[in-house]
Request: fold
Amino acid sequence: MLTVELPEEPEKLYYSAGDAHPLAKLETDKIIQMVVDLDVANSDSEHYVTGWMGLNSVVVVRNYQNKRGTANGFVVNKGDRYRLSIQSIEFRIPKAVLWMSFRRKPRTMELITYETLGEQPSGMQQYRNILDEELLQQLDADWRELNDYLGAACWQLENGTPLWQQTQQQITPEAIRQLVDAPIFRTKHLQADGDYAGFWAGEYFFAVRQPSAGNPLPAVQISWREDEKDIGSYQFDLINGAAGEPKLSLCIRPRKGADSYLLNRFDAHHLQRAIAMFAMTQRYLLA
Reply:
C-alpha cells in the first residue's frame, strides 16, 4: 500500500488555531498586522499574493485601492462553494471633510463577509448579520485554520524558508528525469491528463510529461484524491534559470482540469507534502 510519510506539523510563529483572536471581535489593527507579517513583497504599493490552504486559495490583499478607500486583508475561497473575506477598510475622505469633522485620520472598519459561489451565488452577507449558528461555526473554523496557515507561513519566512530550500535540494532536475524515464511508463496503459499521461495506483495518479517542441523539459505530476469530489495535483516542472540551468518549478493544481499555480516559498504544508509525495513516488516507480 502506498503511503505518504509526513514529518511533524510545520512549526508556527505569531499565529495558530489555538491562539486565534475571535472572529467576532476582530479589529482593523489586527488584520493589518497579519497582512504585513505575510507581505513577501515588502511594499506599500497595491499588490496581491495567493497562497494555498489545502486545495483552497488564500489571497493576501495589500493596499487595494478603489473609490471607497483602501483595503487590506484576506480572501479565502472554499473551492466553488463559498468565499470568506476578512478585510480592514480605510475610507477615502477628502482632507477638507476630515478637517471639518475634527478627525486626524480617515475612519477605518473591519469588514467580514460571506458569499456562496457556483451557479447560484448569494451575494455578500456580513458576518455580524449571519443568524445560522452552524454557518457561524464553520466560518470560525475557517478562521482558525487560516491562523494555522499564517503561523506556519510566518515561521518559514522568518527562518529562511527551509522547506523551500529542501525542495530545491531534494527534487533535482536529475531526479525528475529519472522518474520520467522510469520503465513502468512504457509498460502501463497510460491515461491522458492534459499534457501529462499516467496511471492510477491506489489513491494516487502518477503521470509524466515527455519533452516536446512546446515543452522541451520533462515534468512529473502526482495527483491524489482529496475527497469524493476533488483531485489535487502537484506538478514538478523544470524551467531554465537565469544562468540557463534547469531548476524546479513547483505548482499545485487544485482540481482536475483547473489551472495550475506556483506554490509560494511559505506554503509550508504543501511544500512538506510535495517533498513526501515525491519521495514516495521515487520508492514506487524506481523500485
Q: What stands out?
A: The chain has seven helices and 13 strands. Residues 23-159 form one domain. The two ends are 14 Å apart (CA to CA). The CA atoms of residues 30 and 100 lie 29 Å apart.
